[in-house]
Amino acid sequence: MGLTVNTIKTEVVCQWSANIPSTPPTFTAAGEQLSVVPSFRYLGSILSEDNTIDNEVQNRIKQASAAFGRLRRRVFQNKNLHLRTKVCVYQAICITTLLYSCEAWVTYSRHIRALEQFHIRCLQCILGITWRDRVPHSEVLSKTNCRSIEATITQHQLRWLGHVVRMPSNRLPRRVLYGQLHHGRRSAGGQKKRYKDQLKTALKK
């Protein structure tokens, strides 16, 4: 029983370590050329050719916003439900959707800023306040007993790091985490943040 590749549905994304060439390489399967795309969805996450999570963060905000909208009238604006119940539903559904696979993210300030804006906006809706009320974000988080998005991502990544460190040395995630390149050199100028840099920052915090 062999594997049959559907060349119409199969796409290729190339993640470049340097500048993207003007003419992308070609890939063939069963004598047919496969289409090379800048990004595609894999296991619920969006992989991009520039190795950033810009598209993934926007997609996560879109998915979480849709989930919040479906529950807005029935749960979050329901005056018969206690605030604690609303927050528990929000964390179980919306935050889980928003931060899906965040354990592997390499975040910059622009990503945290976009995620925090969505988070605070949802909590303000649950509390029944708007920006005109001039309630500080710290007070919004305190009233709902919620963490900031940055703190939540840090918690998830450190938890995942603990799992990887305790894995046997032959497991692939642990080998990748401690792996080093034997060849190649870093480009001149500012460097892209690596996953190891993200974890070091989280540990310092």
If you had to describe this structure to a student in words, what would you say it looks like?
It comes from Muraenolepis orangiensis. 49% of the residues lie in helices and 9% in strands. The strands form two sheets. The chain has a three-stranded mixed beta sheet, with no helix packed on it. The longest helix is centred in the N-terminal third of the chain and has 23 residues.
What features would you highlight for this structure?
205 residues; mainly alpha; three-stranded mixed sheet; two-stranded antiparallel ribbon; 7 helices; 5 strands; 9% strand; globular; Alkylated DNA repair protein AlkB homologue 8 N-terminal domain-containing protein
Task: Give the secondary structure arrangement, pairings included.
Elements (H helix, E strand, L loop, with lengths): L10 E2 L14 E3 L2 E5 L2 E4 L2 E4 L5 H23 L6 H16 L10 H19 L9 H8 L4 H17 L6 H7 L16 H10 L1
Helix pairs in contact: 1-2, 1-3, 2-3, 3-4
Strand content: 5-15%
Helical run tally: 7
Oligomer: single chain
Listing every helix as H and every strand as E from the N terminus to the C terminus, the arrangement reads EEEEEHHHHHHH
Overall pLDDT confidence: 88
What summary fits the major beta sheet? 3 strands, mixed
Radius of gyration: 21 Å
Summing up helix and strand content along with how strands pair, one would put the structural category as mainly alpha
- The coarse overall form would be globular
Report the strand count. 5
Low-confidence stretches: none
> Helix content range of the residues, please?
40-55%
Spatial strand sequence of the major β-sheet = 1-3-2
Distance between the termini: 52 Å
